[in-house]
Design goal:
It is a single chain. By secondary structure, the protein is mainly α. The protein has 2 helices and no strands.
């Protein structure tokens, strides 16, 4: 919601009080893939050696 609740209402969008229901599911968490993670030391070292460009995709 870009603009928050106030903008939502100003645009005439619907507000409801219904509680949604979701079907049961199963999710199995996996360990992080260290091949796609970079820690602070790796980043600083690599930037200093100009081995790559850093793109923050948060």
């Amino acid at each position: 919601m870009n603009g928050g609740r106030k903008k939502w209402i100003e645009e005439g969008r619907e507000l409801v009080q219904d509680v949604p229901s979701f079907s049961r599911s199963h999710y199995e968490a996996k360990f992080p893939d260290d091949n796609v993670r970079a820690n602070k030391d790796l980043i600083l070292d690599s930037l200093q050696q100009q081995r790559f460009n850093l793109v923050d995709v948060r």
